[in-house]
Amino acid sequence: MNKLGKKAENLALGVREHVRLGHNITETVKGKLSLGAQILQVGSLEKVFKNLFSVSKGEKLLKASQCYLSTTAGPIAGLLFISTNKISFCSERSIKFASPNGELIRRHYKVSIPLKKIKTFDLSENVRKQSTKYIEISTSDNFDFWFMGFFNHHKSFKCLRQAFAKAPKN
Description:
Radius of gyration: 16 Å
Strand order of the largest sheet: 4-3-2-1-7-6-5
Largest sheet: 7 strands, antiparallel
Number of strands: 7
Shape: globular
Distance between the termini: 46 Å
Oligomer: single chain
Helix content: 25-40%
Strand content: 35-45%
């Protein structure tokens, strides 16, 4: 198979895996349309990142990838942002949470991990289903995060590796 054919096959596998992880196809498509509308409304992924997360002076967005965050309640679709200072995730859709007073509220599910808190990260795959690839991130305070369902997990992992290599270690 030629190089272009291999790239096309890998992209098709990535798209299939991304859609398969969703709870149902209708909700997955709605989430993608909502995300696309938000990006168009704000103007760019960089602006979406700055609106969702606090960004320090000089911090630059390196890559944004659609993926899923694995949770005990199941995978959550969203965007993974890799910047010069942190790894951040925000769900595509708002999720119901119980507030401290017991009230149900809807909020986007967000995670932000400073690069200096990352202890290890690795690419791994599901032993039973090798097409399912994960990026596992472990933090210095013993939390593990599993991101999966990337259209192209290799590009996201490469960007994470480059950001981590350039990040100050203090």
